[in-house]
Amino acid sequence: MRTRHHAMAASLLVLALGATAAAPSAASSPSPAGNGRALAVTAAQLRLPAPTGPYAVGESTVHLRDTGRADPYVPEAGGRELLASLFYPARAGSGVPAPYMSAQEAELLLESRGLGGLVEPGAVAATETYARLGAAPARGRFPLIVLSPGFEQSRFTLTSLAADLASRGYVVAAVDHAYESTATVFPGGRALPCAACDFVERTGEAGMAEVARGRAVDVSFLLDRLAGGHPAWRHASMIDRRRVAMAGHSIGGDAAASTMAADRRVRAGVNMDGAFYAPVPAAGLGGRPFMMLGTDAQHAPGGTTDTTWDRDWPRLDGWKRWLTVAGAGHFTFTDMPVLGAELGIEDPSAPLPADRSCRITRDYVAAFFDLHLKGARQPLLAGPIPANPEVTFQRP
Q: Predicted confidence band at 182 (pLDDT cuts at 50, 70, 90)?
């Protein structure tokens, strides 16, 4: 299980960040157009799409430690740690540009994917996100959305979606779960190994289910610290505690359902192309809304690659949608296709253009939350539209 996810992640990171055509082989991974020479990457080349909402976007980071719970993968490390990037509606003209990630994290990311020396870490770190550190918060109270990344991936892979949601009037907490990624640096310069990867290597699908359920505990603790009586974030007064939701990519999408099953504060959830290793409870999610957004290749009804969506669809007992996207790949719903497009690299296994990948992900996820957290009517979710021919509304 870990091997499959690692191979997919490595392939897409090669796509996003650039490598020679010889590593890995062209048969299994996309390669740069042209003669195969390594791409020269400069900071000016890399940028995410600009957010589409009316607000400017602020960003800050919160480090949390749950002293009442030992880390499930490295118990000797003590309390479970989380890092959360908080994206929020901000006042225009305030703050300074936020980096995509630190240079140390970019270097770790590149080295872990065999790209050390091929791409300048500073160029990746300086990718334009349109978020600003130290930005003054906009007036008002806003719904909170938690974003959880894919297995082995960091919170940075969901930056484009997070920034766009913040620009549309949401506080967004993108979370890194300790010992579950290969390129996250905790305070003090601590780069924690992916101990969860070793755990899943030993335990397979049962281990992936434990990862999802463990993230549910993480998110409940995060909500306690963001929306509880003694918040850890200085702008926590912006959060409307009555309107909380969650979305995730891959195992993060499974974790969204697991969190809803365990925590009634989470009113709605989205699974972006993740298998339900931890099944949706047979009793459902208490009538709360849930959306599944995935690839045709893996998540069309009746498929054999992942049968968990067919199994759990009847268990979703509230408002629900099952959407698949033609031409999409597993990482379509993250930043990776956009970064690949910035470098002029194509992935033959996922021919959906990067701009469409970004637009579809942003629009459908935002429409879901606008409907269920803001009560705004959303024709986009009523059925297929000619403007989005790639999106199929599945009704098994």
A: confident
Return the ∠ at Cα 186 (arms to 183 and 190), rounded to 5°: 80
What's residue 2's pLDDT? Answer: 43
* Concatenated DSSP letters of 3-59: HHHHHHHHHHHHHHH---TTSS-TTTS--BSSS-PPP---GGG-BPPPP-SSSEEEE
Q: Is 380 helix (H, G, I), strand (E, B) or coil?
A: helix
Confidence of residue 216 (pLDDT cuts 50, 70, 90): very high
Q: Can you tell me the distance from the alpha carbon of 207 to that of 214, in angstroms, rounded to the nearest whole number?
A: 10
* Strand residues in 71-167 grouped as ranges (E): 79-90, 96-97, 131-133, 142-148
Both tokens assigned to 219: 């998110």
Alpha helix positions (H), 96-250? 103-112, 121-125, 159-167, 195-227
What is the Cα–Cα distance from 393 to 370, expressed in whole angstroms?
A: 19
Q: What is the spatial distance between Cα 137 and Cα 257, in angstroms, rounded to a whole number?
A: 30
- The answer to whether 87 and 166 are in contact (CB under 8 A) is yes
**Residue pointed to by tokens 């281990």:** 207
Nearest to 158 by CA among 15, 322, 361, 319: 361
pTM: 0.91
The CA distance from 251 to 181, in Å, is 12
Specify which residues 324 forms β-bridges with. 294, 392
DSSP 189-205: TEE---HHHHHHHHHHH
Cis omega before residue 353 (within 30°)? no
Q: How many CA atoms lie within 13 A of 366 on its CB side?
A: 21
Amino acid at 335: D
DSSP state letters, 229-292: SS-SSTTGGGEEEEEEEEEEETHHHHHHHHHHHH-TTEEEEEEES---SSPPPTT-STT--EEE
Cβ burial of 264 (10 Å; 0-12, 13-18, 19+) is exposed
pLDDT digits (tens, 9 = 90+) for 61-103: 999 999 999 999 999 999 999 999 999 999 999 999 999 999 9
Q: Which of 99, 158, 117, 95 is nearest to 23 (CA)?
A: 117
d(CA 248, CA 258) in angstroms, rounded, equals: 11
